[in-house]
Prior knowledge:
Layout: E1 3-6, E2 13-14, H1 16-25, H2 45-57, E3 65-66, H3 70-77, E4 82-87, H4 98-112, E5 121-123, E6 134-137, E7 148-152, H5 162-167, E8 171-173, H6 176-184
Parallel strand pairs: 1-4, 1-6, 4-5, 6-7, 7-8
Antiparallel strand pairs: 2-3
Amino acid sequence: MKKILVDLDDVLALDxxxxxxxxxxxxxxxxxxxxxxxxxxLFNKEQQLEFKKYIREANIYDNAVVADNSKEVLEELSKxxxxxxxxxxxxxxxxxxxxxxxxxxxxxxxxNYPFLKSRNFMFLTEKSMxxxxxxxxxxxxxxxxxxxxxxxxxxxxxxxxxxxxxxxxITRVNNWLDIKxxxxxx
Length: 186
């Protein structure tokens, strides 16, 4: 059975970090307010320290939006493919949060994707060591190796050109229906 690696943040769980920032600071930031990947750069160092304390206790996945059609498409794909969730978390704010976020990531996945096998959940910081037939991720740096590489459109990757994607043999997908349609043709 072929293997699909699916990223969690900004692919299945949308807006969790931004919604948590807005909740904590009582703001209305949008992705257009930031440049680059790290949303914590929206606020100053003192605010970052306050927020750092908060996210150690808060569950950012309580503020996540489940990606439209992801449940239905993944459940359908799970009949033909072995699905692995391969998630990492790095923040310039605090790179030690991964251990605290793993249980929260698992809870989100079990609650919203109960058909997925929890033994297929992987949490790491370097995804390139994992081999698969198909990779779905929002970070171009995570899409390496052979196989089908699908870049899920997110706020931080919209400016990557079609030429750059073509050079790296990566296909852009904008949503889960795009993924379904693309894989049905393969």
